[in-house]
Specification:
Helix content: 25-40%
Strand content: 15-25%
Oligomer: single chain
Structural class: alpha/beta
CATH topology of the largest domain: Glutaredoxin
Number of strands: 6
Radius of gyration: 18 Å
CATH superfamily of the largest domain: Glutaredoxin
Strand order of the largest sheet: 1-4-3-2-5-6
C-alpha cells in the first residue's frame, strides 16, 4: 500500500467517491426511502391535538429540539423568523419538543415568544424521521408527506431561511 492510502481520510474519501460514481449520492444524502409520515397522536404544546389533515399536501419543516438545549434555543429563534416570513405560503413549520410535557413546553415556548406550532413527542414521531438523538434536528417533508432530508445541528440564519426556497411546492 502506498503512503497516500495509509491515511484513513484518504481511504474514506475514496470510498465516498466510488459510491458517488456508482450513483449512491442521493441515497447517502436522503437516507432510505420512507413512506408517508404518520402525524396522528401528536399533542400540541398549546394543549390540543395536532390535526394531521392540517399538514396534508404541504411541505413541512420539522425541528426536533429540547428545552434544555442552548443550540436549540438559538436555532428555534431563526426557525421562528422563517415561520413568520412564510406568512401565507404553503410551507409549514412544526417544532417537536422531545422533552417535558405539553404544559411545561408550552410555558417555555410562550416565554421565548415563538409563534410556530410546537408538539410534544413521546418518541413515536421522531422514530419515523431518524434514529439519531442529536438536537436540534431539522427535517424536511415534501408535500406528499415523504421525508426528504434531516439536517443535524444548529443552522445559520441563511441556511434556515433557505429552507423556504428548498420546500417550495
Amino acid at each position: 500500500m502506498t503512503a497516500a492510502w495509509r491515511s484513513p481520510v484518504a481511504r474514506a474519501s475514496a470510498v465516498v467517491l466510488v459510491l458517488l460514481l456508482l450513483g449512491a449520492g442521493p441515497a447517502i444524502a436522503a437516507g432510505p426511502a420512507r413512506t408517508e409520515v404518520n402525524w396522528s397522536g401528536l399533542k400540541l404544546a398549546a394543549g390540543t391535538q395536532l390535526d394531521p389533515a392540517r399538514l396534508k399536501g404541504s411541505p413541512v419543516i420539522v425541528v426536533f429540539w429540547a428545552t434544555w438545549c442552548g443550540f436549540c434555543e438559538r436555532h428555534n429563534a431563526r426557525v421562528d423568523r422563517l415561520h413568520r416570513a412564510l406568512g401565507g405560503q404553503p410551507q409549514q413549520v412544526l417544532g417537536v419538543a422531545i422533552d417535558g410535557n405539553a404544559e411545561s413546553v408550552g410555558r417555555f415556548v410562550r416565554a421565548k415568544g415563538w409563534t410556530f406550532p410546537v408538539a410534544v413527542d413521546d418518541g413515536s414521531i421522531r422514530r419515523q424521521f431518524t434514529a439519531r438523538r442529536m438536537v436540534p434536528m431539522t427535517c424536511v417533508v415534501d408535500a406528499a408527506g415523504t421525508i426528504g432530508q434531516c439536517i443535524p445541528g444548529e443552522m445559520s440564519e441563511d441556511d434556515v431561511m433557505a429552507l423556504a426556497r428548498q420546500t417550495r411546492p
